[in-house]
């Protein structure tokens, strides 16, 4: 198994990990880079993989820094299932078209300036229609439900306690006679929040990948 860290590595936005086994390639999250102009320019860069060669995707939660490039991914040929929790599907039905609308409005604003300068117009990163199209391949899953998105890969979502639908993702990858368990934390919430359930404790793993934006801070 091979892991490629394509976002939220050395920075705190644009979460995206490519997981490759002997037979399968899939993504965990496909987030938009948010921040200053230099950071946002990463959203225009080519993906460091061929979207048409992916077998599926796992989405930890609906925040745009984890999901916001899904419409662009689909626009470039990805059409395999995107697995997430039921609440994440519902929130994505709101957030992704809204993000597409923002992309259209920002492109319109930029193009007014470009045309005044005699430059050609630019396409938006993606549109509302692109976002709506991407939602057609979402597949909702229950917490604690094990499922097999591809041969040799088993997945289970646990509650991350971050926002509604947010998930810790447990993945078991079997290659030959060996099974390796990898856990993706996603964004973790704190205990005793109103409405949101406490994060689930994961008992064991071979490898844990943790979103650690606030890892050096003491939470009261």
Structural commentary:
This protein is α/β, with parallel strands linked by helices. Helix content is 24%, strand content 26%. The chain contains five helices and eleven strands, in the order E-E-E-H-E-H-H-E-H-H-E-E-E-E-E-E. A six-stranded mixed sheet has the order 1-2-3-4-5-6. A hairpin with an 8-residue loop joins strand 1 (2-7) and strand 2 (16-20). Helix 4 runs antiparallel to helix 5 (128-134). It is globular, with a radius of gyration of 18 Å. The mean pLDDT is 94.
Write the layout of secondary structure elements.
Elements: E1 2-7, E2 16-20, E3 25-28, H1 37-40, E4 56-58, H2 64-67, H3 70-75, E5 82-85, H4 86-116, H5 128-134, E6 138-141, E7 146-150, E8 153-159, E9 167-175, E10 178-184, E11 207-209
Parallel strand pairs: 3-4, 4-5, 5-6, 10-11
Antiparallel strand pairs: 1-2, 2-3, 7-8, 8-9, 9-10
List the total number of helices: 5
Spatial arrangement of strands, main beta sheet? 1-2-3-4-5-6
Radius of gyration: 18 Å
Low-confidence stretches: none
Q: Indicate the mean pLDDT.
A: 94
What would the keywords be for this entry?
220 residues; alpha/beta; six-stranded mixed sheet; 24% helix
Quickly describe the structure.
The protein is an alpha/beta fold and 220 residues long. Helices cover 24% and strands 26% of the residues.
């Amino acid at each position: 198994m091979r892991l490629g860290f394509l976002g939220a590595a050395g920075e705190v936005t644009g979460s995206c990990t490519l997981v490759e086994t002997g037979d399968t390639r899939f993504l965990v999250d496909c987030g938009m880079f948010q921040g200053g102009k230099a950071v946002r320019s990463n959203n225009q860069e080519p993906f460091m993989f061929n979207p048409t060669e992916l077998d599926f995707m796992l989405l930890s939660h609906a925040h745009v820094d984890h999901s916001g490039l899904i419409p662009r991914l689909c626009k470039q040929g990805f059409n395999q299932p995107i697995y997430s929790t039921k609440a994440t599907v519902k929130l994505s039905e709101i957030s992704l078209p809204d993000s597409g609308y923002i992309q259209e409005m920002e492109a319109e604003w930029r193009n007014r300036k470009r045309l005044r300068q005699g430059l050609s117009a630019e396409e938006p990163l993606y549109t509302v229609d692109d976002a709506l199209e991407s939602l057609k391949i979402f597949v909702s899953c229950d917490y604690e439900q094990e499922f097999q998105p591809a041969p040799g890969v088993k997945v289970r979502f646990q509650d991350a306690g971050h926002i509604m639908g947010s998930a810790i993702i447990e993945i078991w990858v079997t290659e030959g006679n060996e099974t390796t368990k990898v856990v993706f934390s996603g964004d973790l919430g704190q205990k005793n929040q109103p409405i949101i359930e406490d994060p689930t404790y994961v008992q064991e793993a071979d490898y844990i990948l943790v979103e650690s934006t606030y890892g050096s801070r003491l939470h009261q």
